[in-house]
Design brief:
Blueprint (H helix, E strand, L loop, with lengths): L1 H14 L16 E4 L2 H11 L4 E4 L14 H9 L2 E4 L5 H10 L3 E4 H5 L9 H10 L25 H18 L4 H25 L7 E6 L11 E6 L9 H14 L3 E4 L6 H10 L2 E4 L15 H15 L4
Helix pairs in contact: 1-3, 2-7, 2-8, 6-9, 7-8, 8-11
C-alpha cells in the first residue's frame, strides 16, 4: 500500500484517486476506519475493539466546524474500509467523502434521526437577522443544515447507542469473521450509554431552575431531560451575537434566576465572560464534546458527560 500512497496522494486533489490497494486494510491487515470528529471516533473505537484501526480527521484541540481537509486527510478517506461522518456538519468532509471514498460510508445523521432546532426562544430571531441574505434566506456561518436540523445528536446517549449498532453492522459486512465481537462491543456500549441516559433523567428531574445559558447552540438534545437552552451564539461557536440577543439573554438571566453562564473549551470565552460580567453571574464549563483538548486528553465521552451532568446539577440547584 505504501508504494501506491505517495503518487495517489499527489493526484488526490485533481482526480479523486478512484482506487487504492489492500481494500481499506490498515496496519497488520485490519480494516481502516476513518471518523470525522470525536464522538464518532469514540463509538467506532468502542465497537471495533482490536479488529480495526480507527483514525480521526479532526485532531484534538481543533474545532470540528472549521475542519478543512488536506491531502493527508483525503488520502485517509480514500484508503478507508469504512468512513463514519455526519452529513452537513462538516461540508469539507462531505465533499472529500463524496469525491474520494472507495469503501463503505456511514452517515450518522441518517442513522440517528436528527431533531429540529428549537423554533422558540430569542436565539432564532436574533441570529436569523444577523445571517439573512438578500433574499431573506438564513444560514449559520456557512453551515447549511437542511430542514433546520440540530447536528449535535451525541448529547443524547441513546442516539449514540443507535450509531454504535449501525457501526457494528457496517463492520460486520466488511469483516464477517468478527461480526459477533462487533455486536457484543456495541451491546456493551449501549449498556454504558443507557446508564448515562438514566443518570441524566434522574439527576435533572428535580431542579430549582430549568434554563441554561450556553456559549453556542449545541445543547438542544438536553431538552429531553427538561433543560431549556438559551445560546449566546448560533451553530458556530465563534459567531458574534447581536445586541438584541445579548439584551434578551440579560433579561432571561434576571427573570429565571440563572446563576451560571456556560463556556466551552474549544471556543473563545469572550462573549460568555462579557455577558456574565454584565449580569453578575458565574461562569462554568459545559463541554459540547465535539472534540478533546489538552485539558481533557485523559477523558472520554462517558467521563465528559458525567462532568456535564454535575455542572448542570450545581448550576440549576438540582436535588
Amino acid at each position: 500500500m505504501r508504494r501506491l500512497l505517495l503518487p495517489c496522494a499527489l493526484l488526490l486533489a485533481a482526480t479523486g484517486c478512484s482506487a487504492l490497494a489492500d481494500d481499506g486494510a490498515g496496519a497488520g491487515g485490519t480494516p481502516s476506519v476513518v471518523t470525522a470528529f470525536y464522538p464518532l471516533q469514540y463509538v467506532a473505537d468502542r465497537v471495533a475493539g482490536e479488529h480495526a484501526d480507527v483514525e480521526n480527521l479532526t485532531t484534538a484541540g481543533k474545532e470540528p466546524h472549521d475542519l478543512e481537509t488536506t491531502v493527508k486527510e483525503t488520502a485517509m478517506i480514500a484508503e478507508a474500509a469504512l468512513v463514519v461522518h455526519e452529513k452537513d456538519f462538516q461540508p469539507a468532509v462531505d465533499d472529500a467523502v463524496a469525491q474520494n471514498a472507495t469503501g463503505e460510508v456511514l452517515d450518522a445523521a441518517e442513522v440517528v434521526g436528527l431533531q429540529p432546532f428549537s423554533e422558540e426562544g430569542h436565539e432564532e430571531e436574533g441570529h436569523e437577522e444577523e445571517h439573512a441574505d438578500e433574499e431573506g434566506h438564513t444560514e449559520d456561518d456557512g453551515h447549511d443544515h437542511e430542514g433546520g436540523l440540530d447536528p449535535h445528536f451525541w448529547l443524547d446517549p441513546t442516539r449514540m447507542a443507535d450509531l454504535g449498532d449501525a457501526v457494528a453492522d457496517a463492520l460486520a459486512d466488511i469483516d464477517p469473521d468478527h461480526a459477533d465481537d462487533f455486536a457484543a462491543n456495541a451491546a456493551a456500549l449501549r449498556t454504558d450509554l443507557e446508564e448515562v441516559d438514566r443518570a441524566y433523567t434522574d439527576g435533572l428531574a428535580t431542579c430549582e431552575r430549568s434554563t441554561i445559558v450556553v456559549s453556542h447552540d449545541a445543547f438542544g438534545y438536553l431538552g429531553k431531560y427538561g433543560v431549556d437552552v438559551a445560546p449566546v451564539a448560533g451553530l458556530s461557536p465563534d459567531a458574534e451575537p447581536t445586541p438584541a440577543v445579548l439584551a434578551q439573554l440579560q433579561e432571561l438571566i434576571d427573570e429565571d434566576g440563572v446563576t451560571t453562564v456556560f463556556n466551552e473549551r474549544l471556543a473563545s470565552p469572550r462573549f460568555v465572560e462579557s455577558l456574565a460580567n454584565d449580569t453578575g453571574v458565574e461562569t462554568a464549563v459545559l463541554d459540547p464534546i465535539e472534540g478533546l483538548t489538552d485539558e481533557t486528553s485523559d477523558d472520554d465521552y462517558l467521563s465528559l458527560m458525567t462532568s456535564n451532568l454535575a455542572a448542570l446539577r450545581e448550576a440549576n440547584a438540582c436535588r
